[in-house]
Design the sequence.
């Protein structure tokens, strides 16, 4: 997603610094998922570009899927309108992201 410039905004700056002795990208992302970077200003890693792109995309997906779901539930546009943008850019969304999107649309339609 990052390389196509579809989701490059996540609502906050992701500060990542290169250190040859830092953790690799996979371990940094696992630590991020486990909440170890919640109160840290900077993430130190051997793979800063990858870590920044993955975290920005993940945060951005959460931000945008919420906005898209709200717009769909308010009838401003359809789910197909959103998914078509991914199709135009030849991006195949993983099934778990589509399920998350469907669940959030359902919650918004229920008024939750």
Sequence:
């Amino acid at each position: 997603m990052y390389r196509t410039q579809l989701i490059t905004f996540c609502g906050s700056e992701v500060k990542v610094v290169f250190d040859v002795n830092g953790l690799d990208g996979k371990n940094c992302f696992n630590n991020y998922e486990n909440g170890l970077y919640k109160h840290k200003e900077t993430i130190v890693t051997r793979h800063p570009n990858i870590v920044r792109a993955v975290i920005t995309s993940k945060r951005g997906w959460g931000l945008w899927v919420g906005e898209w779901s709200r717009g769909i539930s308010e009838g401003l546009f359809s789910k197909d309108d959103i998914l078509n943008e991914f199709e135009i850019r030849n991006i195949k969304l993983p099934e778990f992201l589509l399920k998350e999107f469907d669940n959030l649309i359902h919650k918004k339609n229920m008024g939750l």
